[in-house]
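Fill in residues.
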């Protein structure tokens, strides 16, 4: 995709026009520099105790709010592993939470596997996953957008509090880059839809 993953998320946040500040939280110097080059603030480096597998995203965001001494109306969490989410997606998700008064809006995509093929592996034994109501559409969190009002966030310590609404994104823009294969797929989609992501460049 020609640029670090963090670049695309910073640009999407900036072009969305809904964020008073775009800050990046990291313990990696190279990521911090790439984020600043893309236009984000990096007001501090993530402390070691929050750069562990035990630290939760809630812990990281709560620490940022406390350190920055801010009390925003909304928290917008955009993970860099979702580089194909656009500024328009963020705007639309924000419009949904404003219009409805919901405590939170999270992005989802249609589940891409038929339920009959799903199995849970427990002690090497394949067990069927209970099927949802017949005909009911199934979706999964795609990790691209979390928007939440401050108090529900602090009260529930969750980005998906009771009453959270879903903002559906198409599957081709819901790639979550966790592996080299995911990156290749995201890169191919970005090349195919270059015009769609022009504003994020």
């Amino acid at each position: 995709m020609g640029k670090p993953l963090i670049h695309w998320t910073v640009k999407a946040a900036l072009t969305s026009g809904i964020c008073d500040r775009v800050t990046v939280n990291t313990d990696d110097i190279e990521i911090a520099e790439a984020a600043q080059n893309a236009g984000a603030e990096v007001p501090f480096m993530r402390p070691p105790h929050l750069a562990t597998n035990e630290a939760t995203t809630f812990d990281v965001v709560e620490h940022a709010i406390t350190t920055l001494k801010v009390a925003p109306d909304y928290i917008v969490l955009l993970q860099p592993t979702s580089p194909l989410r656009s500024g328009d997606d963020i705007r639309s998700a924000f419009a949904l939470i404003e219009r409805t008064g919901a405590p939170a809006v999270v992005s989802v995509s249609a589940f891409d596997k038929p339920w009959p093929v799903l199995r849970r592996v427990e002690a090497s034994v394949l067990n069927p996953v209970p099927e949802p109501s017949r005909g009911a559409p199934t979706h999964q969190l795609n990790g691209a957008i979390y928007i939440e009002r401050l108090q529900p966030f602090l009260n529930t310590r969750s980005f998906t509090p009771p009453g959270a609404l879903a903002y559906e994104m198409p599957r081709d823009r819901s790639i979550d880059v966790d592996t080299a294969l995911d990156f290749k797929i995201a890169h191919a989609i970005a090349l195919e839809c270059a015009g769609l992501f022009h504003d994020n460049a």
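The mean pLDDT is 86.
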